[in-house]
Amino acid sequence: MKRVAILISGGGSNMIRLVESMTQGPEAEGHPAGPVLVASNDPAAPGLARAAAMGVPVAAVDHRPFGRDRAAFEAELLKPILAARPDILCLAGFMRVLTPGFVQRFEGRMLNIHPSLLPKYPGLHTHARALEAGDAEAGCTVHEVTAALDDGPLLGQARVPVEPGDTAATLAARVLAMEHRLYPAVLRRYAAGDRRPVLLS
Ligand code: GRF
After folding, report:
1. Could you give the CA distance from residue 35 to residue 168 in angstroms, rounded to a whole number?
2. Are strands 110-114 and 137-144 parallel, antiparallel or unpaired?
3. How far apart are CA 81 and CA 105, in angstroms?
4. In this structure, which residue's CA is closest to atom 9 in ligand 1?
5. Is 114 a catalytic residue?
6. Are 48 and 40 in contact (CB under 8 A)?
7. What is the spatial distance between Cα 25 and Cα 193, in angstroms, rounded to a whole number?
8. What is the average pLDDT across 167-187?
9. What stretch of H or E contains 13?
């Protein structure tokens, strides 16, 4: 079984779907991976209680006491992560930029989900930017994490239409529903050693 650690910063709705997809119901049948840790940079992240309720070990390291010393924060966060001996790391609503040193340690086995059709709109406020640009469609992307922010080999993409009258919030909700379908599908394929991209619409 491939051991999967998931990093979150908030509600963890993507984490919940990943854990469910590996542990509950028909989609978990024959799944090649299992969750071994959910960790957060925020001890108050609501997703931590949700993960614990699903029986997944949790850990949190508050990034704030470390100030701008990213490497010191990451050295602390690495302790529970390495103790869990993950084969795959999934960033799921994890809102801290990771240093190249951290990324290199997990290069080739770290995934992230980003709420845009990369390479469009890396960074923040993706839905507002898509609306501002008058895009006819939006979506989300799962990619391997490399040292360059929101870059890296594409592993999955899901498209949604932009509807008349959409706000950033209504578009975000439509994209999030697709994230919850895309990420579990990508993780299952990735854990089986298949790197073909998953494309949904
Ligand atoms: C989602 O939009 C996801 O794309 C981004 O963080 C947001 C919240 O994710 N990475 P979650 O509900 O915490 O999984």
Report:
1. 32
2. antiparallel
3. 12
4. 93
5. yes
6. yes
7. 22
8. 98
9. helix 13-23
Spatial distance between the Cα atoms of 7 and 146, rounded to a whole number of angstroms: 16
Please state at what angle helix 13-23 crosses helix 168-191, rounded to 10 degrees: 30
Class (C level, CATH) for 1-106: alpha beta
* Lookup: tokens for 192: 């089986």
In this prediction, residues 48-76 reach a mean pLDDT of: 97
Q: Is the CB of 86 under 6 A from ligand 1?
A: no
Outline which parts of the chain fall under CATH 3.40.50.170. 1-106, 112-201
Bond before 80 cis per omega within 30 degrees: no
Q: What is the C-alpha separation between 5 and 89, in angstroms, rounded?
A: 5
Q: How far is the CA of 200 from the centre of ligand 1 (A)?
A: 18
Label the pairing between strands 137-144 and 154-161. Answer: antiparallel
Amino acid at 111: L
Query: Quick check: pTM over 0.90?
Result: yes
112-201 CATH: 3.40.50.170
Structure tokens of 126? 């993706």
> Which is catalytic among the residues 31, 63, 114, 127?
114
- Tell me if 113 CB under 6 Å of ligand 1: yes
- The CA radius of gyration of the chain, in Å to the nearest whole number, is 16
Mean pLDDT of 55-72: 97
Single-letter amino acid code for the residue at 7: L
Ligand 1 within 6 A of CB of 10 = yes
